[in-house]
Amino acid sequence: MSYFAFKNHNIYYDLQGIGKPILILNGIMMSTKSWEPFLNSFTASNSLLRVDFIDQGASDKAKIEYTQDTQADLLSALLDYLKISKINVVGISYGGEVALHFAIKYKQKVDRLLLFNTTAKTSDWLKDIGEGWIITAKTRDPRAYYFQTIPVIYSPHFYHSRIDWMKNREKVLAPVFSNPVFLDAMERLTRSAETHDVRDSLQYIEAPTLIVTADEDYLTPMPEQKYLHQNIKHSFLVQLPQVGHASMYEVPFVFASLVLGFINNPDVTYAI
Amino acid sequence: MSYFAFKNHNIYYDLQGIGKPILILNGIMMSTKSWEPFLNSFTASNSLLRVDFIDQGASDKAKIEYTQDTQADLLSALLDYLKISKINVVGISYGGEVALHFAIKYKQKVDRLLLFNTTAKTSDWLKDIGEGWIITAKTRDPRAYYFQTIPVIYSPHFYHSRIDWMKNREKVLAPVFSNPVFLDAMERLTRSAETHDVRDSLQYIEAPTLIVTADEDYLTPMPEQKYLHQNIKHSFLVQLPQVGHASMYEVPFVFASLVLGFINNPDVTYAI
Amino acid sequence: MSYFAFKNHNIYYDLQGIGKPILILNGIMMSTKSWEPFLNSFTASNSLLRVDFIDQGASDKAKIEYTQDTQADLLSALLDYLKISKINVVGISYGGEVALHFAIKYKQKVDRLLLFNTTAKTSDWLKDIGEGWIITAKTRDPRAYYFQTIPVIYSPHFYHSRIDWMKNREKVLAPVFSNPVFLDAMERLTRSAETHDVRDSLQYIEAPTLIVTADEDYLTPMPEQKYLHQNIKHSFLVQLPQVGHASMYEVPFVFASLVLGFINNPDVTYAI
Amino acid sequence: MSYFAFKNHNIYYDLQGIGKPILILNGIMMSTKSWEPFLNSFTASNSLLRVDFIDQGASDKAKIEYTQDTQADLLSALLDYLKISKINVVGISYGGEVALHFAIKYKQKVDRLLLFNTTAKTSDWLKDIGEGWIITAKTRDPRAYYFQTIPVIYSPHFYHSRIDWMKNREKVLAPVFSNPVFLDAMERLTRSAETHDVRDSLQYIEAPTLIVTADEDYLTPMPEQKYLHQNIKHSFLVQLPQVGHASMYEVPFVFASLVLGFINNPDVTYAI
C-alpha cells in the first residue's frame, strides 16, 4: 500500500516490474484496481506505475477545487517523488485527457504517449451528457445512474456478445452507485473535465503519440481522435472496429498489445 | 381537425394535397406538428397523410395495453377509413419500426417503404437505454429528462454547428418535459417498443425499400440499418455522413429529397 | 438527331420532356446513349438534356487542344443555342468535373448542382492512374485496356454480385477497345482532365449542391467528395455503401431517385 | 548467405536475433531485402526469420508449376530444416495468403498469426486486376508496368504526402520492371495466387490471429479482412486509417509496433 502526499491529499499509487516504464491513467469511473487483469502483460518486460487520481479509488476525496490540469500536476509530483525523470504515458478517456495536459505542461517527462478514446476538448455535446450524469447522480438512485451511464460506455457489439457479463455488471455496480460518497466524487470528477480544452496547445506535444479510436465509441466519437491525429505532430492513428468507449474492457488483448508494441518498439523512424 | 376512432381512441390525422400518397410516421417524441416544415415539399406533387399514434400529439392517451403492432393495426384501420388501398410509407425511428410491422402484416397496402434511423429489433442495449429514459421520466425533473434523452438523439456535428438552436430547444422542451401526462405517455410509448423484433419476418417485405442510415446515430447505429438492408429483398441503402438519429431535423432538405425522389421516381428497375 | 456547332465541331445533343430541366453530363467512357435506361425516370416530370462532349459518342473528335474548361464552354454555348437560361446540372466523374468548371464560370446558368464520384482536382495519384490508361491505350490491345480500366471502375461488391454482366461487358467492350479512333479519343479526354484543379474556386459556387460519394470508389475515393462538401457552401453529402465509381450503373434506381428528389423538391430551406 | 533446398530450388533465407521467433512473409513484389528497415525492431527482443519464396529475391526462379500452397509447403520444410517447431507468422498480401495456407495445413507449427492486407480468396475482381498486370508484364514496357501496378498499391494519402518518394520510386523500379526475368517471375507469382480460396478452411485456424485492414487499400479492400475476422475464431481486427495496400511501407512504425505487441504480449486471455 503506497501513498504519497499531494496538496494535502493521500494519493494511492502502485509501482511494479522492471523495464521501460509505463504510467497508465484511469478513465473516470476506474481505479488502479481496474488494471489488475493487465498486470501480467504490463509487468512482463516493463515497469508499471498506476495511480488513483484525486476522487478515485484509494486516493483521498477532494479537499480542493480541481481540474484535469490539477491531476496533471499530481502526476508530475508523483514522478518527482519516485525520481522517475521520463515515462511512457498511457491514458484512456479522462486519463487520456489528463495525459494530454501532462504531455503539454511537462513535455520533458514524456517518452511516448498513448491516447485511447480521448478528446482534445470537452465539447458542448459531451458537457451536456455529463450534465445528465450529474443530475442523475443527485437522485441517489443506483439504477438511474446505471442506465444513464453504462449503456453509452459500451459498444452495442460488446453489449450483445457479452450480455451476461453486462447483466452481472449491473449487480456489481449497484452498491457502488448507491454510495453517495462515490456519486459525489463522480460529480466532482465530471466537473473537473468540463473546462478541458487543449486544442491550441497540441502543437507543443513532441512525443511520438499513438491515438486509438473506436468506431462504436458514442461518448468520444471518432472525429475527436481524428482531430488529435491532425494536430499532434508525430502521431499515428489506429482504429478499433466494433469497439466502444470502454476499449480496455472490450478488447483487452488488443489494448495491451498496442501499448506494449508502441512502447517497446526500439525504432520510431524507419529508413523507408 | 380530423379524427377517426380506433379501439375507443380518438386518433388525430391530417390529409392534404394530391398525387402519389405518402404516409409519414412520427418518431417517439414527435407528432404530426413536427412535419409542418415539410408540408411544402411533401404536398407539392403528392398527397400527404400524417397521423398521431396512440399517446402522441392530438391523439388520445392510451386506454389499452399496446405494442408497435397495435400502432400498425391503427394505420391499417385509418387507411380503410380513408378508402386508401395502397400508400407509400415513410417512417423514422419509432415510426420506422411501426412501418416495418405494417409492411409485414399489411403488405398489400404498401407501395414503397422508406425507413430512416430504424432497427429490426429493440436490442438489449437499446432496451437498457430506454430503461434509463423511463426511470428518469419518473423523477418528473425536466432537466434530467432533457439531458438524458436529447444529446444522444442529435449528432455531435449538428449539436455544435447549431448550438444556439439546441440551447433554445432546452427552453422549448422544458414545459413539455415538466408535464406528467407527456412523461407517462413517453413511458408507455417506450415500453410499446420493447418487444419489437421483426427479424424473422423481414423476408416477407416485397415493397421496394429505401433504408437510410446516419453515421453519428448513437441510438440506432449503422449496423442496425445494414442488417435491414441485408434482409429486405428489394432494398437500397443510403448513408448520411455527420448526421445523427434526428436525421429529419438535422438535414431536412436531404431527408425530403430522398423521400420525394424514391417515391416519385416512376422506375424501379433499369435495364442495365 | 440534333447537332449544334461549337468551335468547328458538330456536337451531338438530345433534348426531351417537359418540366424542370436537367442537364446530365457523361463520365469519360460514356455517351448520351449510356443514359437510355434513365429516360423514363428523367423525362416523366422533367425535361432532359444530354450531350456528347468533344471526343465522345456522336460528337466530333477533337480538332483542337482542349481541357475540361473547354467542355464547360461548350455547355454554355449549347444552353445559349437552346435559349435555356438556367438548368439543373448533374455530372458523374469526368462529367462532374466539367460541371464544377461550368458552375464556377457560368454560375448564373446553374439552378441546382449534383456531383457523383467527382473530384476537385486531378491529383498526382489519379494522374498516374490516367497515365497507365494512356500507355495501355497505345498498345492497341483491347484486353490490356479492358483489364487496366474496367475492374477499378466497378466496386468489388457489384463485380461479384453481377459477375455475368461483367463477363458480358468484356465482350461488349472488345470491339470498342479495339478501335484506335476510340482509344485516341480516350487519350485526349484523359489528358484534358490532367490540369483539372478548381479547389480555389469552389467558394464561388452558390447553387445548392448535392455531392454523392461511394465507399468502394477506388478512382475518386471518398476523401475527394468530403473535400468538395467542406468547400462548397450550400452543399449536402450522401454516401452510397458498397458502391463504386460507376454509381449510375451499380445502383441506377438510387442514382435516379437522388437526382429527381434533389431537383424536384421545391424547398431548399426548412424552418427548423 | 543462407540457402536450403526445396523441390530442387535454392531458397534463400535469413535468420537473426534471439527471443520469440517471427517468420515474416513477403508481398508479391517484395523480397527479404524489403524488411531491412525493420531489422532493428524485429531483432531487438525477437529472432527473425525471413525467406524469399520461389520466384522472389535471391531464391531460384520456378522450375515447377506452383500455387500458394506450394509456398506454404516450402515454409514447413524450412522450419523442419531449421528445427523450429513453432513460430509466429506475419504475412502481408501474397505473404498473408501463404500464411493462411500454412496456418491451415500446418496448424501445429503456428504460434500466433498476423495478417496484413490479406484476403481469404482471390476474387474474380482481384483476378481480373491480376490479369491486367500479367498482360502488361508481357509488353516488357517498364513504364506501363509501373503505372499499372504501383498507384493502386499505395493509398492516395501516402502518394500525395510522399510524392517525392513516389517519383523516386519510379526511377528505382525502372530497371527492375525492365527485366524480363523479373516480369516473368511476377507473372508466375500472380498466377500462383489465382486459385487461392481458403474460405472453407478458416474454421480450422486455432492460433490467436491479428487481422489488419487499411481503409485506402484498393487491392484487398476492407470487406476482405472483415470476412477473415468473422471466420477465424480467435481473431482480432485493427484498422489503419488513410493507409493503403502497402501498409508496411506507409506506416512502418505502426506496422512494426503491431507485430511486436501482438507477438510479445504474454497474455492472450484477460479475466475481464
Characterization of this structure:
The first copy, chain A, is an alpha/beta fold and 272 residues long. Chain A has a domain at 2-121 and 197-264: Rossmann fold. Chain A is built from 11 helices and 8 strands. Chain A has helices spanning 39-44, 68-81, 94-105, 124-139, 142-153, 156-161, 163-178, 180-192, 222-231, 247-250, 252-264, and strands at residues 2-6, 9-16, 20-25, 46-51, 87-92, 110-116, 209-214, 235-240. In chain A, a hairpin with a 2-residue loop joins β1 (2-6) and β2 (9-16). The longest helix of chain A is centred in the middle third of the chain and has 16 residues, at 124-139. Chain A starts with a strand and ends in an 8-residue tail after the last helix. The interface between A and B is medium-sized, with 30 and 30 residues.
CATH class of the domain at 2-121 and 197-264 in chain A: Alpha Beta
Based on DSSP secondary structure assignment, what is the total number of beta strands of chain A?
A: 8
The helix content of chain A is 40-55%
Report the CATH superfamily of the domain at 2-121 and 197-264 in chain A.
Alpha/Beta hydrolase fold, catalytic domain
Strand residue content of chain A: 15-25%
Assembly level: homotetramer
Please identify the structural class of chain A as seen in this structure.
Answer: alpha/beta
Distance between the termini of chain A: 48 Å
Q: Any guess at the CATH architecture of the domain at 2-121 and 197-264 in chain A?
A: 3-Layer(aba) Sandwich
Question: Which runs of chain A of at least 5 residues are low in confidence (pLDDT < 50)?
Answer: none
Task: Output the CATH topology of the domain at 2-121 and 197-264 in chain A.
Answer: Rossmann fold
Number of helices of chain A: 11
Overall mean pLDDT score of chain A?
97
